[in-house]
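fyi for ur records
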Amino acid sequence: MRPLLAILFVLSTSVIVNAQIAGPVGESAGVAVLKYSWTKERVGWQQDPFSGPIENSDEMRVRARNEKRVMDAKKGGNGSELSRAERDAKTDEALISRIHQNTRARYGFVYKASVQNNGQKTIKSIDWDYVFFDLGTNSEAGRRQFTSEQKIPPGRARELSFFIPFPPTKTISIEALDKHERDGLGERIELIRVQFSDGTSWQIP
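which gave:
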């Protein structure tokens, strides 16, 4: 499992969203999501904690995942998915620029998902999305996309986690604390792709 990126820079307030129990998402891949949660961590480092080598690496992963999503949508001829992928990519780029321009104390975000391998093959890696939606309209409000290179033997469970500067949605501030900002916001985990150690894979239809 990739360690929490830049977690040593977290110095003070932590707003914890209680873990939620999920249903058998991705059960067709032999993988069950047991629980998931996200936390908002106040970063008080005097220099930009997202400007060092660790964050640069994370930025590249975000960009690579966005580029792959755009390419897949183009190949599939899905116009709505292409528009959403391009919109999300632009949003992430704007957030990166905003974060590097602002050197004041801000918040980083830790996303976690506990999964269990109920299949017969050892898992090599998992592509998973943390999806946020409006409880009133059920429309998607935000999506964080991750790839966890994590060996999970049959019958074993592991926690997948990432520390990144990107908030769940545009309505959640990266510079301030608001205890009401989660009101009306639903969330779920979507398993996108599971790769196994024998070279085979499962992907969401």
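The longest strand covers residues 31-43. thats all i got for now
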